[in-house]
Write a structure and sequence with these properties.
Rossmann fold; about 30% helix; globular; 10 helices; alpha/beta
């Protein structure tokens, strides 16, 4: 019996705002998983706290909602324990680039074979729209009517500076393209970072479908664009238009497990090797 999107549907009613980009992102994700023939029992997803984290019970998978900014290490742990699972970390821009930024750096540099979905709506939406490091400096936000005093972080350039094995950018206004991007990210052998430029109709009204049509372009529209070229990738990030698609990939990088020599010839997964051990003899040392 073949998989359908219904196999990934949850009985729980989504509580996102009408028009929220999470609806499109989840539809794109489910479509990608079905087309890759990955069943719900073969997928582990770790979720962040926030609007994206509210999707933990909206998709029928092995899901775990972690602490704020910690969905990436949760995903890494699941992957290291059992590589039979497809592993996805779901995280918002606020958590990822504030308290979770060290986890992102470590995952990319170690090149764990996981996919990281970054929901970038440029604000902490669940707590009424505070600014994140990806919010424009002059943009009025909750508690900062004149904008925030700190400089913004160009998250795309930051990710690219880490030399990832896979970096792509999609948007919730184009769910079909986003689904193809997610498929490519999952199939990549290494840490795939996918930034999703996401509509937030409540706290980031400047980003609308109309704005996206005028300002967002696809890398496919660029003549002779080579996503294996770091130079090409860097150049389009300096462009006034925002480009979506696979921005950069480095096929020469080995994944983490391929670089761990003491596991090279081991056929079992770590989860298979966990057994109940009798520790009574150890307690004698403390008598």
């Amino acid at each position: 019996m073949s998989l359908t999107i219904k196999d990934y549907n949850s009985t729980n009613t989504p509580t996102w705002c009408p028009g929220c980009g999470n609806f499109a992102l989840h539809a794109s994700l489910k479509k990608a998983l079905v087309e890759l023939n990955i069943s719900p029992s073969e997928l582990f997803m770790s979720f962040d706290i926030g609007c994206n984290g509210n999707g933990a019970d909206k998709i029928n998978v092995y899901g775990f909602k972690g602490l704020h900014g910690r969905s990436i290490p949760l995903a890494v742990g699941a992957h290291l324990a059992n590589r039979r699972f497809t592993v996805i970390a779901d995280i918002g821009d606020g958590a990822c680039f504030h308290e979770g930024i060290d986890h992102l750096i470590h995952a990319v540099k170690a090149n764990y074979n996981i996919t990281i979905l970054i929901h970038n709506n440029q604000n902490f939406a669940l707590t009424t729209g505070q600014a994140t490091v990806s919010t424009q400096e002059e943009k009025p936000m909750y508690g900062l009517p004149k904008g925030r005093p700190e400089r913004s972080l160009n998250v795309s350039k930051f990710i690219l500076s880490l030399d990832p094995s896979f970096y792509a950018r999609g948007t919730s206004t184009d769910p079909l393209q986003l689904s193809e991007i997610i498929k490519s990210g999952i199939e990549n052998n290494g840490c795939s970072v996918i930034e999703v430029i996401q509509i937030c109709p409540k706290y980031n009204k400047d980003f609308s479908p109309e704005w996206a049509i005028q300002n967002i372009k696809k890398t496919d529209s660029l003549e002779n664009y080579n996503n294996l070229s770091l130079k090409n990738a860097t150049e389009i990030l300096d462009n006034s238009s925002i480009y979506t698609g696979i921005i950069y990939r480095n096929n020469t990088l080995k994944s983490f497990y391929e670089r761990v020599h003491n596991r090279k010839d081991t056929l079992t997964e770590l989860v298979d090797e966990v057994k109940i051990q009798d520790t009574a003899h150890l307690l004698k040392y403390f008598e």
